[in-house]
């Protein structure tokens, strides 16, 4: 793990094991992202530890990162917000952002965005967008629009292919989904799988695609062919 991504993540949780578990998952899927799990109270039991959260943020800022804080429950998010206020930097300096989103799903989505070079702000939006997969079961909420766009003046084209058989017995699970989402982001592209939106990590996982399924792909962007080739490579590799 190189910790070379511009944006780092601090996970604020009431549980040490929960924070460490989310960090362990991120290490597998976004290995270049610096993650600091800060879980549990000062005595090691359930609770939050504001000084430890601030220490983690300060360390990452001093190392040259922007920092995104995620949290599991209300008081943990309050601690994150306090640290954002304490670490407020003038405009143009490295950002510190707190986001209120599902701690596992949201932090994972943010980490994939960070792995692709996202800023703290775009990682926060990715965390909020992660609720799309189950938003129908919730009260109506406003999710910021984060669909990517190409550079101004770029010609947008679409490349398609059909008959792609998923080689991995587990289908599109977390690791290939992260690789595909990163390829799409790098190519400023969006994708449909059998007509369904499948650009973000959570959209890909929500497909429920299984090993042996045969799918059609449509990639739209300024240079869709190499992106499509990368996606096909991931899906057909065991």
Automatic annotation (TrEMBL):
EC number from the UniProt entry: 2.7.1.121
Its quaternary organisation is: Homodimer. The dihydroxyacetone kinase complex is composed of a homodimer of DhaM, a homodimer of DhaK and the subunit DhaL.
What keywords tag this UniProt record?
Transferase
The UniProt catalytic activity note for this protein reads: dihydroxyacetone + phosphoenolpyruvate = dihydroxyacetone phosphate + pyruvate
Q: What Gene3D superfamilies does the record tag this protein with?
A: HPr-like, Phosphotransferase system, mannose-type IIA component
> What task does this protein carry out?
Component of the dihydroxyacetone kinase complex, which is responsible for the phosphoenolpyruvate (PEP)-dependent phosphorylation of dihydroxyacetone. DhaM serves as the phosphoryl donor. Is phosphorylated by phosphoenolpyruvate in an EI- and HPr-dependent reaction, and a phosphorelay system on histidine residues finally leads to phosphoryl transfer to DhaL and dihydroxyacetone. General (non sugar-specific) component of the phosphoenolpyruvate-dependent sugar phosphotransferase system (sugar PTS). This major carbohydrate active-transport system catalyzes the phosphorylation of incoming sugar substrates concomitantly with their translocation across the cell membrane. The phosphoryl group from phosphoenolpyruvate (PEP) is transferred to the phosphoryl carrier protein HPr by enzyme I. Phospho-HPr then transfers it to the PTS EIIA domain.
Q: What's one GO BP annotation on this UniProt entry? A: phosphoenolpyruvate-dependent sugar phosphotransferase system
Alphabetical list of Pfam families matching this protein: EIIA-man, PTS-HPr
MF terms per GO, please? Answer: phosphoenolpyruvate-glycerone phosphotransferase activity
InterPro entries this protein is in? DhaM, DhaM_N, HPr-like, HPr-like_sf, PTS_EIIA_man-typ, PTS_EIIA_man-typ_sf, PTS_HPr_His_P_site
Question: What PANTHER family does the record point to?
Answer: PEP-DEPENDENT DIHYDROXYACETONE KINASE, PHOSPHORYL DONOR SUBUNIT DHAM
Answer whether the UniProt record assigns the keyword Plastid to this protein: no
**Boundaries of each HPr domain copy?**
154-238
A GO CC annotation recorded here is:
membrane
Descriptive protein name: Phosphocarrier protein HPr
Q: Which domain of life is it from?
A: Bacteria
| Top EC category | transferase
Annotated PTS EIIA type-4 domain ranges read: 6-135
Keyword set includes Transport: no
